[in-house]
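Collaborator request log, item 7. Partner lab (contact: R.S.) asked for a structural prediction of AAA family ATPase to inform their binding assays.
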Amino acid sequence: MAMVPRDIETVLSRYMQWFPVVSLTGPRQSGKTTLARHMFSDFEYVSLENPDIRQLALDDPRAFLTRYHKHVIFDEAQRAPSLFSYLQGVVDETDEPGQFILTGSQNFLLLKTVSQSLAGRMGLAHLLPFSYAEANRSKQAPSSIDRYMLRGSYPRLYHSDMPASAFFHTYLHTYLERDVRDELGVRKIADFERYLHLCATRIGEHFADSTLAAAAQISPATASDWLSLLEAAFVCFRLRPYYRNFGKRLVKTPKLYFYDTGLACHLLGLTSSDDILLNQPLRGHLFENLVVSELLKHYYNQGKEPQLYYWRDSNRREIDLVIEQGSQIRFLVEVKASTTYNPHAFANIDSLGDLMNIPIEQRVLLYGGSESFTTRHGQVLTIADLEQIVV
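Returned to partner:
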């Protein structure tokens, strides 16, 4: 099957004209290697998953970079982090853009060796699994939003008829055994797996490390470390509360989401779209997760840094998403999984939008229906039109 075009390609081409090094990070199986080799087919490809290659890079990085000194893709580059310090010297010799591409399943921003060695020399891009638009391009997109949430958006699921359950079983086994144990040093795999399953039950909820730790029967410090690992590996992320105080004390705890709803559904034991329909509160949380993760994809695919938050005051009035640009609120977004529009869904946005002086056109209801339109309360948008609120 032909490769599905990815929306981030324009950003990568631009970065290759600006920076000596371009990093492409994202979760395992999001299509990083396929995309890099497709776009830059004239570059030499070097996988640091290969133990012999990796050993050479670790033992003698100078000789390694003499051998691979220009127009190279280093795949899974986080496996040899000491290489970055030496890479700085190579790129500084010529300062020529487009010399190296680094791909990895961990966020390089969190590796101190990268931030210190390649600051100002590296363009940073994140490739998440397919967006809704990209999945539709594959011509194998699920026929409904519930099926899309259940299947998830990893490209391999759109290149074959593989059951999602088979993919995620293998994905979790590989992730837990290789990344968590061998690469990240976690030894209590059974405890970690239980913790990961518990994270899925907390989607869209306010949480604290101590609460999740108690449920998983681990220490708060361990829970905090493990959540940081899941964030670095693009499995989970936290949505922070909006801190600007408009006369009310705000809730300070974050919310937890998964980068892919298919993985979350697998962890929750959901095996069909009927399972989702029969669990209405859970369906609402999964749809909210889908909206937030789709927004992240659109931001990253355009090379933009998302400024996404949620709002909840001491009176428990809540807005699902606050989208900021600079220091200004650009959109207030309420998320409803219902396929039918109900004007009452705008209730919190109506009152809080007036308090914040947010114009009507910047108030949005994102729902599970198939038609987008404008009302006197604000915009009503579908998942397909979600890109309209990426600023």
